[in-house]
Structure formats: structure tokens, C-alpha cells
Amino acid sequence: MLLFDLLTQTAREARGGLLLVLEDLHWGDPLTLELLAALAAMAAELPLFILLAYRPWPQAPAPFLRVEALPHFTRLPLASLDREAITDLVRAKLAQLIPARAGALPEGLVPRLFAQTQGNPFYTEELVSYLHDRGINPYDPAALPALELPDSLHRLVLARIDQLTERERATLRVASVIGRIFPATWLPGMVPDLGTQARINTDLDQLTQLDLTALDAQEPELVYLFKHIVTQEVAYASLPHTTQEALHEQLARWLEGQGREPPPLDLLAYHYNHSTNQAKRREYLRRAGEAHLAQGNCAAAVASLTALLALLAPDDEEYAMTARYGGRDVHGAHGLPGSGAGAAGVCGRGAERHRSGALLRGPGPTLWVPRRLRGCGAAPRTGATARAGMW
């Protein structure tokens, strides 16, 4: 059963309806956004409530624009916390870190933090954790006036990472290459030098106690997540670019060697495409694009195949073979210049039809799709979803 059908059926059968929460939607892959658009359109007819948490896009993708245009869509902008809310947040955080002083607030601490964070709750929490990590007693009247706090959230998170042990820091940085959510067993497979699984689990437990990561799932395997996407971003950015590329390739090679069926093509394409292995970048971008076309997942297919064409020179033989699937030459993707207008994935009902295929127009070259893979010649199927890019 397709995921769309499963969710709509669950909404109809659930007592009291179904609540669907999607966090960090700004990281959503094209298939997730298409699924969301289809579900949102049905929400007025079903006992279904969809809650979305996201940062504003510089340019919102087309599926989300369709969601925003629905008459039953309501936007609730989240402003910064006021002074009273920050006071409650600091009190709760101190009670967690210093239970013996629960309820009491050090004089002058909240005004200092509020002036610096301007009501940003994550920044505020991280500053309190930063003081605790450094062994600074916020209840000491002499400690705060002379204290120099990191002057930005990025520097603050980086300072917290720098205070970790070498082992913990290495574990955190390697995990950041996988993504915000990462299975613990992937770490030693990706970088054996991190040590045994037991040793890595100990590091992850400590990182969780420091509120840098959190346990996301225990079954069927241990899965962790970065408590905040900023932590993952800063940890990843702290790696030299050449190290990032090497780790992406190590992870992709390990995943490739697991022999999973079907192979995680989106993950392999993403990680190889962030490496320097040109042959593997081409191979998996092509395979991912072909798989999406076969399933009728148009936006994801355009994204993969456009990324592939960006790696090829127009006179490269492979450039002219991009639309040859299953050993059949079906006219090829000749790289006809696209206008650049419109969003990638305009390949559903509005796709340009042709005798032997359809033209998929994105921000790059025009892609030619053979008739036998014309799932993209009709409305995209929304049920088959994949977590493209990161786990």
C-alpha cells in the first residue's frame, strides 16, 4: 500500500483523527513535499491535522506553495521569546543542570543572556550549557561580570564542540556527515578508527548528557539525532572540505558494501556526489534518476538527472546517453538548453508531450524521458517516498 493511501486510511479509521507532525520541513526532499501537498489537499475532507515546523525558504518549492495556497492553511509565525519566557527557560535549564538550586535564579544572569540572545531559545539554552561545561558557577556573583560569552550562536556551538574530548569530538563530526539523524552502527562502519561499537555508544551517551545529541530510536537499532540542526551544521563545517569529501565517500562505500536490497540509491547518490569519486557520482546519480522515473517521481528524477548533467561536458558521450535506459537508445538527453524559468520538476500534467517521450524542464538542461518511463507524463505519484540526501 502506498504511503499516501496508508495515511489517508489511518486518518479515516483513527478514533479522534490523525495528527501528522513534520519538523525541519525546509530540509524536505522533493518526494516528501509532493506527499505533503497531496495530503494537505485532502485535509479539509479528513479528520487529519498537519503541523509543520520550518524555516522560511529564500524561494519556497512549488509543492509547498500549493500547500500555502489552500484555504485551510494557517501560518503561525514564531517570534522570539519575551523576557518572561526566557526567565522561565533559564530557570528550567538550571534546574536540569544544578538540581540542588532548582527554582532559584542567579542575579543578573537573565538580563545578560536576554541582551545577547534577543529571545532566541536555543541560543539561550546553549549559553547556559556553555557555562556549565566550563565549570562556571552562575550563582557566583563574581563570575558573570568578568565572563566573556561567545558573540554568535555559531561560535557558541563551536566553543562547546571544542570543549569535548578528542574521541567525543571525532564521533560528533563523523556523525554530522551522515546527517541530523544517524544510526549508531554506521559510525564504526564508516570510520573504523573511531573504535568499537561499545566505545562509540559510550561517546554518544556522553554527547546526549551534554544535550548535543539525543536518542531517537532504540529498535530495531540505536538511532541518534542532533538536538538542533545548527549543532550538526557547525560540526560539519568544522571539518576541512577535503575531509568532508573523504568521509562522504567512506560512508557511501560502506553502504554500498552492505548489499542492501533494494540499494539506498538516494543516499548513495547524495554521499558520492559530495565526494571526489567522479565515476561513482555519475553512476548513482543516473541510477537514482532512473529509479525515480520508473516510479513516476518526477521532481526527484529531475533533481538527480540535472545534477548528473552538470558533471558532464556537452561533447561527452555520456551526456548524449542520459536518457538511454535498459540498453535501449530512446533518443537521448541532448542537453537542449532550458530557459531556466520555473522550478525543477515541472513534469506532471504540464509536461510537454511528444511522440516518443516527454520533456522534463528544470533549471538546467532539458531532460528527455522515454515513453515507456512516462510515469512523469501523468500526475506524480505521491505514495512512494524516499529520504533523499541524508538519513
How much of the sequence lies in strands comes to: 5-15%
Share of helix among residues? Answer: 40-55%
- Protein structure class: mainly alpha
Widest β-sheet, arrangement of strands: 3-5-4
Instruction: Work out the helix count.
Output: 15
H/E order of the elements?
A: HEHEHHHHHHEHHEEHHHHHEEE
Summarize this structure briefly.
45% of the residues lie in helices and 8% in strands. The chain has 391 residues and is mainly α.
Which short descriptors sum up this protein?
391 residues, mainly alpha, three-stranded antiparallel sheet, disordered C terminus
Question: What does this 3D model show about the protein?
Answer:
With 391 residues, this protein is mostly helical. It has 15 helices and eight strands. It has a three-stranded antiparallel β-sheet with strand order 3-5-4. A three-stranded antiparallel β-sheet has the order 6-7-8, covered by helices on one side. It has a two-stranded parallel sheet with strand order 1-2. A hairpin with a 5-residue loop joins strand 4 and strand 5 (223-226). Helix 6 (121-133) packs parallel to helix 7 (153-162), helix 12 (241-257) runs antiparallel to helix 13 and helix 13 packs antiparallel against helix 14. 34% of the residues are buried.
Topology (SSEs and partners):
Elements: H1 3-13, E1 18-22, H2 30-42, E2 48-52, H3 62-68, H4 83-97, H5 109-117, H6 121-133, H7 153-162, H8 166-178, E3 181-183, H9 186-190, H10 197-209, E4 213-217, E5 223-226, H11 229-237, H12 241-257, H13 265-273, H14 278-295, H15 298-310, E6 352-353, E7 357-360, E8 367-370
Helix pairs in contact: 1-2, 2-3, 4-6, 6-7, 7-11, 8-10, 8-11, 12-13, 13-14, 14-15
